[in-house]
Write a structure and sequence with these properties.
Elements (H helix, E strand, L loop, with lengths): L9 H14 L30
C-alpha cells in the first residue's frame, strides 16, 4: 500500500471488521463487501465504482 498513515492499514482493518461482523451472526448474504484488484481508496479509483447522481 502506498499510504503511510492510518489509511495504509485500511484494507486489513476492513477485512478484520467484516470477520467480526460475520462472527457475531450478521448474515453473509446481507454484507456487501468487494475488493477490487489494484483498486485504491482515493479519487483516482473511487469514481470508477461509485454511481453517478
Amino acid at each position: 500500500m502506498y499510504r503511510t498513515n492510518a489509511q495504509g492499514q485500511m484494507l486489513e482493518n476492513t477485512r478484520s471488521a467484516c470477520r467480526m461482523i460475520l462472527a457475531q451472526g450478521y448474515p453473509a448474504e446481507r454484507l456487501n463487501y468487494v475488493e477490487e484488484e489494484g483498486g485504491t481508496h482515493d479519487l483516482l479509483f473511487l469514481p470508477s465504482i461509485c454511481p453517478k447522481h
